[in-house]
Design brief:
Length: 234
């Protein structure tokens, strides 16, 4: 691969992806790899305004699934063209906390919108900007709930019944089966450090340029867990 990798993280709420994004940022920063962290929905001023409407604004109550789908795609179209593609073109590795697989799973499988329409709109929003690797952090509902206990801002997207999240989890697993070369299923029930080690080993195997030379020859040895916080990847 001639350009740096575009890496995305996916999973249900409470799966631990934000922690993993942060741990990966630390590892890249320690190695002096230029990277950028972004998220969906959001990541640009337009996207963050759309995020507010989708998740937190009182006006969002009563939003139709179709409107929701189009707003996620609008946020994504902006992020791809304003941030992700320019960064990759400049040799910067991009990490996104959610990307188009969230739409396939949440709006397609869980909201039951027509999957072909979702696929077409995803393709329209991203063009040729497809992640090189996608990590799906898989956790059961009890683990996810336990991790979501800390106080959070009330989020419209988190008001669904348990069945909705079961659908989301099932759909992520189907995605892994459908696209095994891109989408990697990670057992998210383990410690953050263990998950981080597995992720890193997978990345180094697929993209040797992200690692130091010593690590490439030593992939069976897990790297030391990191506790340092990233300064800023933005
Ligand atoms: P998060 O900030 O906790 O990841 O929450 C984002 C919420 O938006 C989460 O409930 C998943 C949802 N979502 C979709 O339904 N479709 C999408 O395309 C994206 C990116 C997120």
């Amino acid at each position: 691969m001639s350009r740096p990798p575009f890496i995305t993280f996916e999973g249900t709420e409470g799966c631990g992806k934000s922690t993993q994004v942060q741990q990966l940022s630390v590892r890249l920063e320690e190695r002096g790899i230029p990277f950028l962290v972004t998220r969906e929905p959001g990541g640009t001023p337009i996207g963050e305004t759309i995020k507010e409407l989708l998740q937190f604004a009182p006006q969002g109550i009563g939003m139709t699934p179709e409107t929701e789908l189009l707003l996620f795609e609008a946020s994504r179209s902006q992020l791809v063209r304003q941030t992700i593609k320019p960064a990759l073109a400049r040799g910067i590795c991009v990490i996104s906390d959610r990307f188009f697989d969230s739409t396939t799973v949440y709006q397609g499988a869980a909201r039951k919108l027509d999957p072909q329409t979702v696929e077409r709109l995803n393709a329209f929003a991203v063009g040729d900007c497809i992640p090189d690797v996608t990590f799906v952090l898989d956790v059961d509902a009890d683990t996810a709930r336990a991790r979501m206990q800390k106080p959070r801002r009330p989020d419209r997207m988190e008001q669904e019944p348990a069945e909705f999240y079961e659908q989301v989890r099932r759909a992520y697993r189907q995605l892994v089966a459908r696209e095994p070369n891109r989408v990697v299923l990670i057992d998210g029930s383990r410690s953050a450090a263990d998950i981080g080690d597995e992720l890193w080993a997978t990345l180094v195997r697929r993209f040797p340029a992200v690692a130091g030379k010593s690590e490439i020859g030593n992939l069976s040895e897990p790297s030391a867990p990191t506790s340092q916080r990233p300064k800023s990847g933005m």
